[in-house]
Design goal:
binds NADP nicotinamide-adenine-dinucleotide phosphate; single chain; alpha/beta; seven-stranded mixed beta sheet; 23 strands; Aldehyde Dehydrogenase, Chain A, domain 2; five-stranded parallel beta sheet
């Protein structure tokens, strides 16, 4: 039998094998071993210093436009290797081609977006934040706020569900800002991340130290961080707590962005009727959100709020569509929904459903249908489950537990005020979507939900054909959410660059400010 290959890490400008056996990555449908990863024995201090000193200096020597061109070159390399990425995603993530596209093509699109945005920043090396402000009666003494790239590394600790997009949606604004990246992908799906980094490194696009990858255990990574470094974490609320309380963040003021779990909502206009356009749009979107990537999206709809009179009609309409979702091996063309990423997630999702069921009724459960080309004793495949609650104000678990799979709960409301209050019981979410034909209702809901959500996605009949999807994170729009969602902010166009820059104020003569301004470009996110 051939041994399972070990993926090397790329650190300190060279490929390095971790020691020991490491962790074995599996095919979540077939259960077969694919590759191994290990970060044991790496000299992390050397790797972080190399990235900070060599990678950082080389990137900062370039202009925004030059760095944007590097992003454009990365796009070309990733595009040239797309087939390999799809093959890895099928094998290691258990996703259908359509679901792999969300991760792979979503990443390429995001990189391309930042390449274009960066090009427009021209040959500047810093960003001018706002106008000059007079600080004395005599206008000769003024202040100008500037944003300069931080002189540290950006450490990314990522979740298992987006091994491609999760890397590049963070790396694009970091590299454009002039900050070197060290990516630590989630172990279960690290292969795709490692392969993409390998392709970019092999193509010789980036300066030495600009992009590193550490696969396997996260042990020791946070310890390397110093005052000018940043860490961007995506994952569970539990790990987020560990990151936040780490001395690097708590004592050394390492800037920290957290994207954690979220109980995202969908809200139907109380004026909607069964079968009207808003109703149908909600039903379609809920089904899409529950099944895309088998519900393993931090932005997926988990709670669906409909007027009490429409509860049964909504349950039937969603159930009818979910009943057509074939689940199983993504290699079979008839499969609509693939696997979860691992058997551990399979166990966790089943336990989560059981937990939700202690409060909710079951409105649809697809688990009686046979899996397509997959052994239920081996494959991490879970069929969609729609739960429901007619008195959600009395529920607790349903507003607290995120089940990271094809699961959502329908909830009845009696008034808009009650619905908004129940939505806020998620304690801060990434996204809420509202379904209505009435612009005034949408504006009201957006204003009411804005302070507890990173995004409010409004689906009305006039945008139905072009809207980007409740759960799709687009680079021009904010990703993140307050409270339980982690309190972080990513993307949002050039706003993303703010995390990788430090703001300071030059207080000085107009002449000095003129010289400074010549090397900067106005920051207009
Ligand atoms: P997780 O268990 O928290 O793992 C996330 C990452 O943290 C992995 O790379 C993991 O490495 C690493 N990690 C684990 N323990 C650590 C520690 N003590 N110190 C430093 N790093 C550590 O989360 P997950 O299960 O992969 O992801 C699912 C969760 O992520 C869901 O709750 C979902 O809502 C959330 N999520 C949020 C977003 C968002 O943008 N808001 C996006 C996607 C997912 P190992 O894999 O090696 O353990």
């Amino acid at each position: 039998m051939t041994p399972t290959p070990l993926l090397p890490n790329f650190l300190a400008g060279r490929w390095q094998d971790g020691t020991g056996h490491g962790a074995t990555l599996l095919d979540p449908v077939l259960g077969t071993p694919l590759v191994r990863v290990s970060s044991a024995g790496l000299d992390l201090a050397e790797g972080f210093a190399f990235a900070r000193e060599q990678g950082g200096a080389a990137l900062r020597a370039l202009t925004y436009q030059q760095r944007a061109a590097l992003l454009g070159d990365i796009v070309k390399v990733l595009q040239a290797n797309r087939d390999a990425y799809y093959a890895i995603a099928t094998a290691n993530c258990g996703t259908t081609t359509k679901d792999s596209a969300v991760d792979i093509d979503g990443a390429i699109f995001t990189l391309g977006y930042y390449a274009k945005q960066g090009e427009a920043l021209g040959d500047a090396k810093l960003l001018l934040d706002g106008e000059r402000i007079r600080m004395a009666k005599d206008p000769v003494f003024q202040t100008q706020h500037i944003l300069s790239p931080t002189r540290g590394v950006a450490l990314f600790i990522n979740a298992f569900n987006f091994p491609s997009w999760g890397l590049w949606e963070k790396a694009a604004p970091a590299l454009l800002s002039g900050v070197p990246v060290i990516i630590k992908p989630a172990t279960a799906t690290a292969w795709l991340t490692q392969r993409m980094v390998k392709d970019v490194v092999d193509a010789g696009i980036l300066p030495a130290g600009a992009l590193s990858v550490v696969c396997g255990s996260s042990a020791g990574l946070m310890d390397q961080l110093g005052p000018f470094d940043v860490v961007s974490f995506t994952g569970s609320a539990e790990t987020a707590r560990i990151i936040r309380s780490h001395p690097a963040v708590a004592q050394r003021s390492v800037r920290c962005n957290i994207e954690a779990d979220s109980l995202n909502s969908a809200l139907l206009d109380p004026a909607a009727a069964a079968g009207d356009e808003a109703f149908n749009l909600l039903v379609s979107e809920v089904v899409r959100e529950m099944t895309v990537k088998s519900g393993q999206k931090c932005t997926a709809i988990r709670r669906i709020f409909v007027p009490r009179a429409l509860y049964d009609a909504t349950a039937q309409a969603i159930a009818a569509k979910l009943g057509k979702t074939t689940v199983g091996n993504p290699r079979n063309e008839t499969t609509r929904m693939g696997a979860l990423v691992s058997r551990e997630q399979f166990d966790s999702v089943l336990a989560g459903i059981a937990h939700l069921k202690t409060e909710a009724e079951v409105l649809f459960d697809g688990s009686s249908a046979a899996l397509v080309d997959a052994d239920p004793a081996v494959a991490a495949c879970v069929a969609p489950v729609l739960l429901g609650h007619r008195q959600p104000a009395q529920a607790k678990v349903l507003h607290e537990v995120e089940v990271f799979g094809p699961v959502a709960t329908l909830m009845a409301f009696d008034s808009l005020e009650q619905a908004l209050e129940l939505i806020r019981r998620g304690e801060g979410s990434l996204v809420a979507s509202v379904y209505s034909s009435d612009p005034a209702f949408i504006a009201l809901a957006a204003a009411e939900l804005g302070s507890s959500h990173g995004r409010v996605h409004a689906i009305s009949p006039d945008v139905a054909a072009v809207q980007s999807g409740h759960g799709n994170v687009m680079p021009m729009s904010l990703h993140g959410g307050p409270g339980r969602a982690g309190g972080g902010e990513e993307l949002g166009g050039l706003r993303a660059l703010g995390f990788y820059h430090r703001r300071s104020a030059l207080q000085g003569s107009t002449a000095a400010l003129d010289v400074l301004a010549a090397s900067g470009t106005p920051f207009k996110p």
